[in-house]
Specification:
Layout: H1 3-13, E1 35-46, E2 49-61, E3 67-79, E4 83-85, E5 88-100, E6 103-115, E7 127-137, E8 143-153, E9 161-171, E10 175-186, E11 189-200, E12 208-221, E13 226-237
Antiparallel strand pairs: 1-2, 1-13, 2-3, 3-4, 3-5, 5-6, 6-7, 7-8, 8-9, 9-10, 10-11, 11-12, 12-13
């Protein structure tokens, strides 16, 4: 299997798009419609090994300023030795908006359950995740600061994990960008890295946008460093 070829094709056509766990631009806000289909393709290198992960993430929001949100993460992974469906994660929780410092702070909190669906690339265990995505947008939305914090309870087979990410950036309605740091910590080690995101919304169509994301681990202990490049394509369904 030519993983480099497989990875480049969906990136060029932007038809699929990686990891549900990440910090992102405007990550704490709801979409412009009640439903959103998030599809991702992420190519990664980890100590010489290569993989391509495809994720389908449908999402649903209620309310405008506050309400609830829910969704699912359905992964499919290709490696040099095998490929198949991974474990599905279901998630949901309260969301809201708070006025702060002349702008607004948006948050999406959640609890998620990863189910051992029996796929070839699954972990055959139940994981529980509790976390929050937050975004501060200045007046006029020119500046933003984004954060993600998540605690994963992975059971007796491996240590629990804490993930966090912080980004800062901004832009306009059609083009936004941000950069910052991400980190993963567990009892037996950690990894810390850099992340950059560029988001493009095509003219005359607010129903979808595309993001280009790059990650690089810069420091690690007992966890292998990795690098990845991804494309996220999100389509908003329903009335704008």
């Amino acid at each position: 299997m030519k993983l480099r070829t497989i990875a480049i094709t969906p990136i060029l056509i932007a038809a699929l798009s990686g990891e549900g766990r990440a910090s992102d631009v405007v990550i704490g806000t709801r979409g412009p419609t009640s439903y959103q289909l998030d599809q991702r393709a992420a190519y990664s290198q980890n100590s010489g090994s290569q993989s391509l992960t495809l994720n389908t993430i449908p999402k649903y929001w209620t309310g405008k300023e506050s309400g609830f949100w829910a969704g699912a993460n359905i992964p499919y992974k290709h490696t040099e030795s095998s490929n198949g469906l991974g474990d599905v994660t279901l998630f949901g929780g309260p969301r809201g908006t708070v006025s702060a410092g002349g702008g607004n702070f948006h948050f999406l909190s959640y609890i998620g359950e990863t189910l051992p669906t029996g796929g070839l690339m699954g972990n055959s265990r139940y994981d529980t995740r509790v976390g929050v995505h937050g975004t501060y947008l200045s007046a006029g939305r020119r500046f933003e600061a984004d954060m993600t914090a998540e605690y994963s309870m992975t059971g007796k087979e491996r240590p629990d994990e804490i993930f966090g990410g912080v980004l800062a950036g901004g832009g306009g309605k059609r083009l936004r960008g941000a950069a910052g740091f991400t980190g993963l910590r567990r009892k037996d080690g950690y990894t810390a890295g850099l992340r950059g995101v560029a988001r493009l919304t095509p003219p005359r169509d607010n129903r979808f946008h595309v993001e280009f994301v790059g990650d690089a681990a810069v420091k690690a202990k007992n966890i292998r460093k990795s690098r990845s490049a991804a494309v996220f394509l999100r389509y908003n369904l329903g009335k704008l």
